[in-house]
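Journal club side-thread
Mid-discussion, someone asked how the predicted structure for our own chain would compare to the paper's figures. Pasting it here so we can look after the session.
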Amino acid sequence: MPNGNLVSDFRLIDRTEYYDQINKLNDWNFESDLDAKYNKSKIKLQESEKTMEKWVQSQDPKTKEMNMSTVIESTSNSNTIVGNKRVYERSFNNYQYNDILVSWAGSIDEGIIVPPAKNQVEKAHLNGTKILGTIFLDGYHGLNKQALKGFLEKDNNGKYLVVDKLIDLAVQLNFDGWFWNNEPNGSNPNGFIVDNEIMFEIMNQMQEAINKSNNPKVKELIVFGYKNQGQLSTDPNGNLSDYESEKIYQNTNLFLNDFYVFANEVNRYVEKNKLSEQERFEIYNMFNTGAWVGGSIWFDKNKIGTRDFRELNYIPFDKNGNPYDLNKQSEYNRMIQDYKEGTWTFKTEQQDEKNGGSKNSIALFASHVPYDLASQDMDKIGEGKNKSAELDTYGLVSANNYDDQMYTGKNKALSEDDKGVVIYPGGEKDNSIFKDKSYGIGNLVQEKTILIDSNNYFKTNFSTGQGSKMATLINGERKIIENYPWSNTNIADIQPTYKWDVREVENNSKKQIKNNQDKKISGYYDFYDPYLKGNSISLGSGFDEDGKILPAKWEANKKYEWNIMGANYTKEGEPKKVSMVVKVPKYLENKIDISVSGKGDKTIVPKNPTTKTYINDSDSTDYTWIKLENTYTEPIGKIGLSFSTEGLDSLDFKITCGEIVVDKENNQVKQNDKSDVGVNIESVVQRNGKNNIRFSLTEDTLSDDIYSYYEIYLKDENNKLIRLTENNSPEFYIKQIDNKYKNFYIKQVDYKNQEKWFNFSL
C-alpha cells in the first residue's frame, strides 16, 4: 500500500498508535530493506529472436503477445522466495509465444503496488520474456482517497515522489517495468477519488524520468497502460472515441484495449494518426480466457484450444470483399452468422497489401484458466481422497496440457490446415461447433528462441519448477530423492519451443502427426521420469489419474522426428556441440539419434557418427538413459530427436528427453571460484524447539551462470544428508528445523553440473 502498513499489523500497540503506519512506499530503499535481497532476481533478461523458420505460415513475426495471469493466487500468502513443500502450484510454460508477462495482482486488501515475485522473474527472464509488476488503481473494488495519499505526495518542485520510487523498485529488484491499471474512480465520475489529469501527469513524469536517465537499466523499462472500457479508436469520421485512453497512450510505452475492441478499429486509429509499423504493434487487443458464462468457465475443457482469435488482429471480410465494422453490433452479429455459413474470410498480406495482414498485437487476460480447469479435474478424481503428491502431479500434467492447447490448439501441434471457432462467450447451445476444431495463439505469433548466435551456451532440463521427487547429483552420481514434493520456480528451466511437433519422415517428406482421435501421440511434462530436477518431457498417448504418461502406439517400419527446441543459429562454420539425454526402451537404443535441421527445415547430416554414453538408472530394467552427442557447423533452426521403428516387435513405448545442451567453442560463462567464500549466518530464531535460520554465502560464486543453483542439506543423527530446499541465489532461509540438527551443507551446481560444497554449523 502506498501509505504503508498499520503498526498494529506487526506488534501490540496502545491507543495512541492506533492510526500509525510504517513501511510507506516512498520511504523504501534497497539498502535499508533487510529482505530486499531475497526479492532481487539474479537472471538478466535473455536475448531472444524469432526462430529461423515459421512453424505455420499464418504466424506473423511482427505480432507480439502479452499474457496477464494471476500466477500467484494470493500475493500476501505465498512462499515465492524459499518455495513450497507441495507439488501443485500455478505456473506458466509457453514463453516461446509470450513477449510480456504481466504478474496480474493487486487489491485494496493485499496491496495496490505489486512487484512481480522473484521466482516469476527468474523463469520469465531465463526464457527471454519481459515481466511487469502491477499498479492496481481500481476504484471498482474499494480504492479510496485515504489509500492514495502516499501515492500523490510531491516534492518542493512538484515532482511526484512515487515516480522515482517505482523506477527504483523495478531496477533494484530486476524486473522490466509496470502494468498501469488506471481506473481509480471506478464507475463514479472523474475526481470522485482523484482527478485523472493527476494520474496522466504522474505517467508523464515517469516517461520523462525514464527517457532522460543515463542508466541503461532505467532506459529499458516499459510502462503498459490500460483503463476499464478503454480503447484507442476513432469513429468513421475520424473523431477520437476515448479521451482518457488517448492520454494514457500518450504517456506510456504500450497500450491495452479492453475487451471487444477489434483490428478494424485499431487500424482506423493507426491510419488516422499516421502511426509507424512499430507503433502499430505497440497497441494490443485483448481476449478474456477466464470469462464465466452461466455459472461456469466458458473456455472449458471442450472449448479450450478451439478458439480462432484472428478478429483481434486481422480485419474480417464478407463474401463480397467488404470489411465488417465490428464496433457496430449489427455488423458483429452478421459476422457471426456469416461465419456459421462459411461465407467470410481474413485476408493475408499476399492477397491484399492494404487490408491484409496483422494490424496490432494481442493479449490474453486471466490466462491462468488452464489451472482452474485442472483444479476442477483434481476435484473430480480426488473425491474421497486426501491431497497427495499423485493428485498434485496429475493436476500439474493436466494444467500444462490445457495450457499447451490454449497456445497450440486442441491438437497441441500447429498445422497449416488448423481451423477454429470465431464466437464470443454466451449464446451457443450446441457444443458440436467446437468438435474437430484446433486453433491457438501460436497460429498467430511466431515462436521466439534464445538459441541464437549471441548466446554462447544453452542448457535445459525442462524443469517447470515443481515435482514430487528430485533428481540430483551427489559427488557426480545421479540420485533420485523420492517423496520430495516441492515447488520452487527459482530453479526452473527454459521450456521446449515446440508443443509438440512430431512428424513421420519418408524420403524428403515430413508429415506432421496430429494428436487427434486417429493418432493419440503427443508430448507431456513427465514428473515420474526426471533426469535432473523435477521433470522431463515425454512423448506418449495421455496420462492416468496419477499423472503418469502412458506409452504411445507407434506404427511399424516408420521413421519419426520430434522437434523440441527452435533456434536461429545463423553463422556458417561455427562449431556447436549438441548433447541430449534421453530415456528409451532398450530395444530402441540403436535406433535413436539427434535430429538437427537448418534453413527450409532441411535435415543436417553431421560429419561424424553420434557418440552414445549410457547413464546408470537403477529404477528401470526395460528402459535406459542415454547421452547423445555430436557437433554441427551449419546454421541451425531446430533441434530434436529422430528414431525408427523398423524391425521392432513392440511398438508401445514412450520416449523421454531430460536434457539438451548446446555449447560453442567461444563459450565464456564466468565462474567465481574463490576458495575464501564463507557462510554468513544472519539470524537464528528459535520457537518451540525449532530453528528458523537466515544465512548466505559471503559471495555469489555463480553470479554470471544463469543455469546454476544451490541445494541445502542437513546432516542427521545417522550421518545422512537430508535435502531441505533449493535456490538460484546465495541467500537462504530455512524454517522449523529441529534444534538438535547443527550441521548444514550447501551444494552449488554449475552450468556443467559440476558440484562444489560449503558447510556450516550452528
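Post-session note: Residues 8 and 18 are 7 Å apart (CA to CA).
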